[in-house]
Specification:
Helix content is about 25%, strand content about 30%. It has about 350 residues and is an alpha+beta fold. It comes from Litoreibacter ponti.
């Protein structure tokens, strides 16, 4: 396995890019440690696939370098990078048995049959497909086909990195949680460096130790799932992660204080910087119904099982709150309280308050 370093990486599909808007990938500097579980998370068009193709060698970046354990591989083709990749749709041979599918990457590289059998048996046990080894792949269900595709990526023990490109997109929703759990278990057992590319926050947050959140070709935050939820560094992260996402509210700054819809709002700590578009960010989990606070009128209530999502209008602005127990009726007048230590100011999207120590 390998540590992967991206150094001053930028890419444009235009021959002569003139400004940041011409780059599909803005400048990226990051390290993925050997043996880690990482996710690239963001909406369609944010640059995830471009970055994955650059790491795999299918695309050479316009600028910067890719290093595997300090070895520059920027100009090397995919077959010289020693990587394995699992795609959206299973890449297996339907006419082969499960055993032969798992053995193929090893036989193709000339490994001894004794070693091939040991590795195939080991991976089959991890995947819980031992009883299918003599079954032709054409007879497998879609989730089992993707299991075998994953196994083909994991059967080699000499790869630098295993990359997963939206591997659960074609899997039925009720089977996705099984494969997510299995993949996490596999990582903990083989300790391979793994990079998981997805637009699905649940997949990213349940698989990865560190998540790289991307927007419009830019990395906006790198952190653990807990860090991304509890302290978003950018409004996009707060809005994209969470269900529902963070409330992002227009803010007014006057006399050293911050207000929303004409009412003063207490923040987590000291405000930093000045100028730019000011917005308040607070997650619905930290908005509560209260006897005092912001005056609001309930617009709608959604019962989502263990709790309800109450959307109330403060002036012309909707604010969401997660409420357990009894909920108000539509049209009812209520007051909303923001938990101060979870209420933050953002400037032009970026976090602009300091956490209290």
């Amino acid at each position: 396995m390998a540590k992967i370093t991206l150094s001053k990486l930028r890419h444009s599909y235009m021959p002569n890019p003139k400004g940041p808007e011409d780059y599909a990938l803005k400048e990226i500097d990051l390290d993925w440690e050997d043996g880690g579980a990482y996710a690239l998370l963001g909406p369609s068009g944010c640059g995830k696939s471009t970055l994955l193709n650059i790491i795999s060698g299918l695309l050479e970046p316009s600028e910067g370098a890719i290093l595997f354990d300090d070895r520059d591989v920027t100009s090397l083709p995919p077959d010289q990078r020693n990587i394995a990749q699992v795609f959206q749709f299973p890449v297996i041979y339907d006419t082969m048995t499960v055993y032969d599918n798992l053995a193929f990457p090893l036989r193709n590289r000339g490994f001894a049959e004794k070693f091939v059998n040991e590795r195939v048996t080991e991976i089959a046990a991890m995947l819980e497909v031992e009883e299918m080894l003599r079954t032709r792949a054409a007879h497998l269900s879609p989730d089992n086909k993707q299991k075998i595709s994953m196994g083909r990526g994991l059967v080699r023990d000499d790869v630098n990195v295993v990359m997963f490109d939206e591997p659960l997109t074609a899997i039925d929703p009720h089977l996705k949680w099984k494969l997510r759990s299995k993949l996490r278990e596999l990582h903990q057992r083989v300790r391979a460096t793994m990079i998981y590319v997805t637009h699905d926050q649940t997949e990213a947050l349940t698989f990865a130790d560190q998540v790289v959140v991307m927007q419009e070709g830019e990395v906006v935050q790198i952190g653990t799932p807990v860090e991304l939820f509890e302290r978003p560094q950018h409004t996009f992260v707060g809005h994209f992660i969470g269900s529902p996402g963070m409330n992002v509210l227009a803010a007014d700054e006057r006399d050293g204080g911050v207000s929303f819809e004409g009412q003063a709002v207490a923040l987590e700590g000291k405000v930093t910087g000045q100028g730019g578009l000011a917005q308040i960010g607070i997650r619905p989990e930290f908005v509560s119904l209260s006897d005092t606070g912001l005056s609001a009128r309930v617009r709608k209530v959604a019962d989502v099982g263990r709790h309800s999502v109450v959307e109330a209008m403060v002036g012309d602005t909707p604010v969401k709150a997660i409420v357990e127990g009894d909920t108000p009726e539509q049209g009812e007048e209520v007051h909303l309280a923001f938990r101060p230590d979870q209420t933050r100011l953002y400037r032009d999207g970026w976090l602009a308050t300091e956490a209290r120590t």
